[in-house]
Amino acid sequence: MSTKIVKNVFGKTSEGEQVDLYTLSNPMGIEIGILTYGGIIQFLKVPDKSGKLVDIVLGFDDMAGYENSSPYFGALIGRCANRICKGRFSLNGKEYSLACNDKGNHLHGGIKGFDKKVWSAEVKGGSLILSLTSPDEEEGYPGNLEVSVVHSLSDDGTFTWEYFARSDADTLCNLTNHTYFNLAGHDSGTILNQMVQLESDFFTETDDKLIPTGRIFPVEGTPMDFKTPHAIGERINADYLPLKLAGGYDHNFSVRGKTGVLRDAAFCYDEESGISIKVKTTLPGLQLYTGNFLDDVKGKGGAVYPKNGAFCLETQYYPDAANHPHFEQPLLKAGEEYHHITSVKFGVR
Predict the structure, then answer these.
(1) CA nearest to 176, candidates 194, 191, 163
(2) DSSP classification of residue 307
(3) For residue 234, what is the DSSP state?
(4) I need a surface site. Which of 72, 101, 286, 295 has the fewest CB within 10 A?
């Protein structure tokens, strides 16, 4: 692997902590900028079909943007991605109450999740390793959790997050990255014409607060069917209750195949730029989110991000799994290792 990694100072947090920007680049010309604050993908430049470099992720130019606005642009998410109903779960006969930061529910790790922390960084063997310690009872979670995420970019254009965690007590752990993709360029408007294919036959039903009901429905014959490529905007406004409740796509899809095995999860592309991404994961689920809550957010380089200005593909254990025993559980037992991989291969078509 001939990845180059360059370190620069990006800025300081409001509390005065230095934040660094690590840029990974490969012979294809791909450049990925990763902040030590939140493990955020600040930019991601890939060649389009004409060879021009296009930044395909939403973000901000400075630390103030990331601290003052919180759409989770590009960030590592933990201790537990997605929603936990009323911030409550039981483990080993004890009930835990987590910080609630979304309509009375716990979302993406709580008030100060991993997306708002400055991670330690180490460059090792062509990879960037970001690490942090989440102390016992942080945001209400049990156990001291040691986390590290290995970021690597291969010569063939595959970018990989490899997640590791270990706890000294039984706890929940469900790590993801919340990058917002726009394959025509971060400043190009909406993603409604971009094509999505998901390796999924089922999705989890949610209520009006986007909390799973526990029911798993087949996608067949519904606007949730992405077994073949469909434009995001083709059915987003369909008269279909799950879409109406979420204001678009904001749903967890079951990824075909066995958890723990790295397998295809999604393929997306933009006809005009020709840029494509192929997502693989070892996790059981994938959240397709179509930027329904974006409302003209002022982003990088003077760009204004409208509703549906990007889509996210968050690989994960199912939302609120701890309260639904028939879902695969994001339980990390004391002394055992959490280890999952998600990769994105960039290409043109």
Answers:
(1) 163
(2) T
(3) G
(4) 295
Contacts of 186 (CB under 8 A, 6+ apart): 55, 56, 57, 58, 59, 299, 300, 303, 305, 310
Residue 213's Cα: distance from chain center in Å? Answer: 22
- 278 in Cβ contact with 31 (< 8 Å): no
Burial class (CB in 10 A: 0-12, 13-18, 19+), 77: buried
Is the preceding peptide bond at 79 cis, omega within 30 degrees of 0? Answer: yes
The answer to whether the beta carbons of residues 24 and 153 sit under 8 Å apart is yes
219-248 pLDDT tens trace: 999 999 999 999 999 999 999 999 999 999
Q: Which one is catalytic: 151, 178, 186, 324?
A: 178
Map out the domains of the chain as residue ranges: 4-348
Catalytic site residue 178? yes
- DSSP states along 59-115: --SSHHHHHH--S-TT-EE-SB-SEEGGGEEEETTEEEE----BTTBEETTSTT-GG
Contact (CB, 8 A) for 100 and 209? no
Confidence of residue 1 (pLDDT cuts 50, 70, 90): low
Instruction: Tell which CATH architecture fits domain 4-348.
Output: Distorted Sandwich (2.70)
Catalytic, out of 151, 314, 324, 340: 314
The answer to whether the Cα torsion of 98, 99, 103, 109 is positive or negative is negative
C-alpha 192/C-alpha 38 separation (Å) is 28
Q: How far apart are CA 9 and CA 19, in angstroms?
A: 6
pLDDT exceeds cutoff 70 at 285: yes
Residue 103 CA neighbour count, 13 Å, CB half: 8
* 230 classed as catalytic: no
Angle, vertex CA 313, rays to CA 309 and CA 314, nearest 5: 125
Its pTM stands at: 0.98
CB–CB of 126/1 below 8 Å? yes
Task: Judge contact between 211 and 318, C-beta under 8 A.
Answer: no
